[in-house]
Amino acid sequence: MTRTALLLLVLMSWQAPPKHDLVARFYQQRDNRLFWFASDDRAATGRARLLRFIDSAAWLGLDSNAYHPDSLRGLESAIIANDRTLISADRQFTAAALSLAADCRRGRMDSILSYDGVSPSFTRREDSLLLAGLGALSPDAIDSWLTSLNPTTPRYAALKAGLAQSIDSNNTRQAVELSATLNTYRFIHHFGFDRFIIVNIPSAMLYCYSADTLSLSMRVVAGQPSKRTPRFAAWCTALVLYPYWNIPHRIAVNEFLPLLKHSPGLATLADIQVIDDKGTIVDPTSIDWKKLNRTNFPYALRQAPGCGNALGVLKFELTDPFNVYMHDTNLKRAFGAKTRYLSHGCIRLENPTGLGGLLLDHHLDTSFLAACLKDQKPKSIPLAKPVPVFVVYLTAIPDSTGSLRTYKDIYHLFD
Question: Among this protein's residues, is 327 annotated catalytic?
Answer without folding.
Answer: yes
